[in-house]
Amino acid sequence: MPRKFDRLLLVLPGWLAFMLYLPSLSHGFVWDDNYFLTDLPLLRDPELWWHQISEPLFVSRNYFRPLPLAAFAFEARLGGLNAFVFHFVNVLVHAANTTLVVLLARAVIPTWGAPAVAGLLFAVHPALVENVAWISDRFDLMMALFILLALVCEQRIRQPTLRASGVGVLFLLALLCKETAVVLLVLLPLWQAMQRATQTPWRQWLPVLRANGDHKVWVALLLALLAYLALRYLALGYFYWNDSAMAPGNGLQHLLLMGKTTGWYAVLALWPFGQMLPVHPAQTPVSVGDPAAWLGLAGLGLVCASLLWLLLRSPQARRPALAGAMALAALAPVSNLVPLTIGDNLVHDRYLILPVAFLALALTMAWVARPRPLVAALAAGGWMAGAVVAVVGLVPNWESNLTLWTWAYAQRPESRIARENYVAALVNANRNEDTIIVARKLLAIGPEVPGTTHNLALALARLGQLDEAERVALRAIGSYPSTGSKDRLDVGEAYNLLGYIYLKQGRSGEAEQALRQSIALAPYLTRPHYNLALLLFDRGDLEAGDRELAIAVRYGNPELAEAHQRLGSQAKQRKQAKPE
Q1: Which residues contact 144 (CB under 8 A, 6 or more apart)?
Q2: pLDDT tens, 468-483?
Q3: pLDDT-derived band of residue 424, with 50, 70 and 90 as boundaries?
Q4: Which domains does the chain show, CATH number per domain?
């Protein structure tokens, strides 16, 4: 490779990845971002950081991911809850991951320019839009960063002890970002095999591994895994808790579920155009007569058999086959081998980040190995051009909750996640009439979704229809489950709404009871403390009102805290000025 182009081709794909996602820097907080950063103070208040970082995420009792949460806390402290800072870090990590893919490709593809092609395939893949444009998917971005960096270190660091230490530490960091990083235990031997695939006969691999000091790397991985498990148990009190909402069915149905999931991911990875969405709903357990499930299962078997045949019978194809095996292995943790937590979504775009990285390596190596690669190069160029157009079109959908869920609901109106979040986006945009129309339509179709019922009550209350709002709010409270921290938060929000309705109706005693119930369930919510402060000021208990207002201001995001301080102080002054 000419020296003057060497550095350019190393950094060019990462630079293009960064530039492609520049529009996302002007976006706000969407979806789970509000839970982590705006609605609750747990990552904004230094005294509460450990409470959030050392506990499982609200989505599942199995999600122990302290490192990205610590990064969020640092960025919130640094940028004052400016969404730009969080989006900038996401885009920067994506650019770094792209550069790491180029470095991995350089280690196994000697052809000039080809490693940059692998990096470009990764950089522009539309499946990664969710990873980059959504702040809350920092978990996958950082996990991929540490896994790719571990593979680069394994290849580039020659001193065995230093290499083992570096890989072990990076594995631990990846595990602290997301549990699926355990897949490195499968990826690493495949990566080691890929580097020696054309240099060493199969039967001589073990002696070569020992001679290279690779056994030290495996000892380091084992120690890192044990350290992670110890930290996980200390924080959670268990290693695994079965809280999956996915219904696997009997043995055959579970196998078909894996086949359908893997096949769906394969389609999204190879032909993502027009298919990228935050929701991909499907019914479980999978029907035994589902043709897509059988096709996916047959395709999975065919791919595995083909890779095995290439590894054993075609020395020239070993490296592409091993890269393909790495892509397949990276899919294993999200293939519903162990049923995933979120029942409404069978697949998730964001889970493709590692499979796409290794698929890019496999396709690039296969292209280089072709005797006449021109046609393949033209096809790849056309695919990448289409991918750039797709990314440019997809990124604006993630600008706000309203744009995101209007898009998702329009595409997949049967999705429970899309329905519930679309209604929430409407009510948060103060489109109360639209909220009532859509919520009533969805509740009439069924099933009853507590969040939709709650937002219907909120819209009714805002429009002054207090009696109906009260009935709907009570219905929402009765329909919420009570199985986890997110459920307690949701019920706490519902009791706050009920207290707000009672305040508007002049039912002070019932309002106080509902608001105190809300605070008992979700003590870090801002609005119950604020509403209780208003009630206490109106009652003349200024000291107690000051205490609640101080809590509301402390726990609120900067914009809400300022509004609560101003409006609460005005309410207190009006009471003080009013003659007894």
Answers
A1: 97, 353, 354, 357
A2: 999 999 999 998 876 6
A3: very high
A4: 3-398 (no CATH), 401-577 (1.25.40.10)
